[in-house]
Specification:
It is a single chain. The protein is an alpha+beta fold. It has a single domain, classed as Sandwich (Immunoglobulin-like), CATH 2.60.40. The chain is built from 2 helices and 10 strands. Strands 1, 2, 3, 4, 5, 6, 7, 8, 9 and 10 form a 10-stranded mixed sheet that branches. The protein is globular, with a radius of gyration of 20 Å. The site of copper (II) ion has 6 residues, from strand 8.
């Protein structure tokens, strides 16, 4: 009986210590593909960054904040349907489930760039610094591209 108990304990310990090994920092497990920032005319104050996050790990992760020297304020946003109108809404975090991908795209989730400090012309780049829920960080250099569809910078926060 005593031996069995010892065996069970070591099994529990093994399980306990295995968990940190499986769960790496989010910055190592999240791959960023196809980052881009919407090109806007110089008169526009706001723009947005889009990208695809792929979680190669076995635990769920989330982007909890973003920053960029290109903008005064950077927020995590999504779009919600309000009657017939799509409106932007700030979100606390953007989740990326284990083994899954989360796509930031026009009309959906995006990294909002508010109060642009530099013109965002096609061909330039914007660095976006992401912070994950576990405190790890990742910097993404996104090319500025012409993006069709919805215009950011109008109707914000209403
Ligand atoms: Cu937005």
């Amino acid at each position: 009986m005593k031996k069995l108990h010892a065996y069970a304990s070591s099994l529990l310990l093994a399980t306990f210590f295995a968990i940190p090994v499986l769960a790496g920092p989010a910055a190592d497990e999240i791959l960023v593909a196809n980052p881009y920032v919407r090109a806007v005319p110089a008169v526009m104050e706001n723009s947005a960054a889009f990208m695809t996050f792929k979680n190669t790990g076995t635990t769920d992760h989330a982007v909890v904040s973003a920053a960029s020297r290109a903008a005064e304020v950077v927020e995590l946003h999504t779009h919600v349907k309000d009657g017939e109108v799509m409106r932007m809404r700030q979100v606390e975090k953007i989740g990326i489930q284990a083994g899954e991908a989360t796509v930031l795209e026009p009309g959906g989730l995006h990294v909002m760039l508010l109060g642009l400090k530099q013109p965002l012309s096609v061909g330039s780049t914007v660095q976006v610094d992401l912070t994950f829920g576990d405190g790890s960080t990742k910097s993404v250099v996104a090319p500025v591209k012409a993006v069709g569809g919805m215009h950011h910078g109008t109707g914000h926060g209403k």
